[in-house]
């Protein structure tokens, strides 16, 4: 920094001018890197994640991401302020999280689409540290359309572990990215809404925000209704399946079990797959 | 519809298996700022624990350099980001003794320069977008820039003008002038960053400054109402 700056002595003419030019050039170097540069670099090489805050039906959440995808979603109500989130993130992931003023446009767009119920949203997740089983459970939950729910047992059966219903519940309860992987769309096998990574009350709020009526759902559960069938097609579905919701009152038939539906000559819907439809 | 869902699951590319570099960071953030010569040593000993310091120490300089090379804040941010990412990946592959003997400053400038050059090459084939990289129209200067006092505005204008002239220099001279006079590198560092002999970079700096002076003189002549 202290070496002589005028390397143009040979040029007698315009020396003063050159000095001023060199001084002006020097001033061009006075720059401050954009605020997100550090966070973006560290998240791309996975030495730390970048995060921003987002408003959702359950209040503001912190969303963290790195090169592998979304790594964490935490409620501000649970972790407190920015410092609280950064502490909680470091405890869980053993690496720091740095705030960005603006997430990458493509990522922000995909998150918005996902929260808006668009299942084609191109979201990736960083699920390192999760077991194969946990990953299978979380990915399966992603297949449930917005405004619909499936029981824990459905996930267990779909991933080929029909006996692991309780483990499915645990895996969903430990979902590191609630809302974006919609574990809220998985309910108790008796139809009650059940627990949630963000708490039972939040689960009802999120489901309601997706256009589902949690009270109606639990009403059906109390009445012992597991499935709805149509007496015109003789197909039965989960009550929240888009196909079940199309059945008119006149043609809707309620079933308490797969066996009951089968005995009545109904086959399971191939879309919501009450029993593994072959 | 079931098939469509299966596709969905397939597309949900989940990162699960890769667990590279699980060494946890040391106490780089707590450590006091050490002299520049200690950074290569720290990087050689604990890359993941020291890399954040490298970014903090060099981000302003590398960004300013990229800004002068590209002439655009958006491009400069991307170039600087890509340069640091490349630097990290290179350091992962270097043996510790190579990292220890690294002259970080010219090395980083060299990487940024290559990133900027590659982008220009790639762009020749691409259609230049009318919108910004985020799909929105390129933004006006932010409000705080408009609210600055007159003198500062004037100074900034002069700087922007000069910046534009620099950005318009042929690449060979631009890189040399920026590294020498904007970033203040020594000629030996310059030669290392550009991968050219000292004589060549001196000549290019010299010629670049002369081109700038001529461009300035021409502009002044025009501004003063010359015919």
Characterise this structure.
The complex is a heterodimer of chains A (278) and B (227). Chain A has helices spanning 15-28, 37-44, 76-79, 82-93, 105-115, 132-141, 152-158, 165-173, 200-209, 214-222, 242-245, 258-263, and strands at residues 49-56, 59-66, 69-75, 97-99, 125-126, 150-151, 186-187, 227-230, 235-237, 252-255, 267-268. With 278 residues, chain A is of the alpha/beta class. Chain A has 3 domains: 37-115, Double Stranded RNA Binding Domain; 130-213, Winged helix-like DNA-binding domain superfamily/Winged helix DNA-binding domain (Arc Repressor Mutant, subunit A, Orthogonal Bundle), CATH 1.10.10; 225-278, no CATH class. In chain A, the strands form 3 sheets. Chain A has a 4-stranded mixed beta sheet with strand order 3-2-1-4. Chain A has a 4-stranded mixed beta sheet with strand order 10-8-9-11. In chain A, strand 2 and strand 3 form a beta hairpin. Chain A is elongated and about 100 Å long. Chain A starts with 14 loop residues before the first helix and ends in a 10-residue tail after the last strand. Chain B is mainly α and 227 residues long. Chain B folds into 2 domains: 35-125, RNA polymerase sigma factor, region 2, helix turn helix motif (Rna Polymerase Sigma Factor, Chain: A, Orthogonal Bundle); 150-227, Orthogonal Bundle (Arc Repressor Mutant, subunit A). Helix content of chain B is 70%, strand content 1%. Chain B is built from 11 helices and 1 strand, in the order H-E-H-H-H-H-H-H-H-H-H-H. Chain B has helices at residues 2-11, 38-45, 47-70, 73-93, 96-100, 104-125, 143-146, 150-168, 171-182, 187-194, 198-223; one strand at residues 14-15. In chain B, helix 3 packs antiparallel against helix 4 (73-93). The chains are: A alpha/beta (278), B mainly alpha (227). Chains A and B meet through helix 1, helix 2, strand 5 and helix 6 of A and helix 1, strand 1, helix 3, helix 4 and helix 8 of B.
């Amino acid at each position: 920094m202290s070496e002589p700056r005028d390397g143009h002595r040979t040029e007698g003419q315009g020396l003063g001018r050159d000095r001023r030019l060199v001084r002006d050039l020097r001033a061009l170097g006075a720059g401050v890197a954009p605020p997100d540069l550090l966070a973006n670099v560290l998240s791309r090489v996975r030495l730390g994640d970048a995060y921003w805050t987002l408003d959702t039906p359950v209040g503001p959440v912190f969303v963290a991401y790195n090169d592998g995808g979304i790594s964490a979603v935490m409620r501000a109500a649970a972790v407190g302020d920015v410092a609280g989130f950064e502490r909680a993130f470091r405890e869980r992931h053993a690496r720091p999280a740095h705030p960005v003023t603006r997430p990458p446009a493509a990522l922000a767009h995909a998150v918005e689409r996902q929260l808006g119920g668009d299942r084609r949203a191109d979201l990736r997740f960083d699920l390192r540290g999760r077991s194969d089983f946990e990953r299978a459970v979380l990915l399966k939950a992603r297949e449930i359309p917005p405004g619909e729910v499936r029981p824990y047992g459905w996930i267990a059966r779909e991933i080929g572990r029909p006996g692991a219903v309780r483990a499915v519940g645990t895996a969903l309860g430990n979902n590191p990215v609630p809302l974006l992987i919609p574990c809220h769309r998985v309910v108790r096998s008796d139809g009650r809404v059940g627990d949630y990574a963000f708490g039972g009350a939040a689960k009802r709020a999120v489901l309601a925000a997706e256009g589902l009526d949690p009270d109606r759902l639990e009403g059906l559960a109390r009445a012992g209704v597991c499935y709805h069938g149509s007496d015109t097609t003789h197909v039965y579905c989960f009550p929240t399946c888009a196909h079940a919701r199309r059945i008119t009152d006149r043609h809707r038939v309620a079933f308490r079990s797969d066996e009951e539906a089968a005995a009545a000559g109904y086959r399971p819907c191939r879309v919501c797959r009450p029993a593994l439809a072959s | 519809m079931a098939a469509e869902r299966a596709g969905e699951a397939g597309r949900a590319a989940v990162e699960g298996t890769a667990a590279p570099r699980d060494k946890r960071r040391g106490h780089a953030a707590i450590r006091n700022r050490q002299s520049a010569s200690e950074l290569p040593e720290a990087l050689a000993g604990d890359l993941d624990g020291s890399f954040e310091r490298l970014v903090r120490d060099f981000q302003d300089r590398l960004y300013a350099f990229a800004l002068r090379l590209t002439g655009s804040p958006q491009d400069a941010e991307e170039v600087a980001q890509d340069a640091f990412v490349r630097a990290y990946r290179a350091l992962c592959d270097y043996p510790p003794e190579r990292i220890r003997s690294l002259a970080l400053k010219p090395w980083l400038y060299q990487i940024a320069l290559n990133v900027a050059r590659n982008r220009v090459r790639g762009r020749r084939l691409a259609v230049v977008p009318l919108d910004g990289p985020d799909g929105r129209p390129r933004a006006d200067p932010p409000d705080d820039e408009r609210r600055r006092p007159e003198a500062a505005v004037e100074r900034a204008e002069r700087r922007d003008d000069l910046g534009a002239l620099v950005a318009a220099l042929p690449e060979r001279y631009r890189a040399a002038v920026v590294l020498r006079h904007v970033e203040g590198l020594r000629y030996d560092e310059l030669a290392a960053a550009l991968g050219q002999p000292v004589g060549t970079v001196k000549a290019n700096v010299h010629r670049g400054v002369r081109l700038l002076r001529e461009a300035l003189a021409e502009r002044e002549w025009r501004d003063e109402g010359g015919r």
